[in-house]
Prior knowledge:
mainly alpha
Amino acid sequence: MPTSNRQQSPKKKLLDQYARFSAMGMQMGAVIFVCIYSGMKLDEYLHWEFPVFTLAGSFIGVAGAIYSVIRQLGKNQ
Length: 77
């Protein structure tokens, strides 16, 4: 698809930014949810009293989501 040098209208640019940041938020939520859910299921499977994998999954999920957002913000500027 050829790209043109035309400037986008301010409304279109604002809508594109809104869609991009909304998608980042949904992606962050999905990553955190999957990591925590996986940790919960692993803790259930191993019958551990203290939720080690749930806590580890939450930290890994949050760190991974933040890393992903920082990487996407750096790429899009």
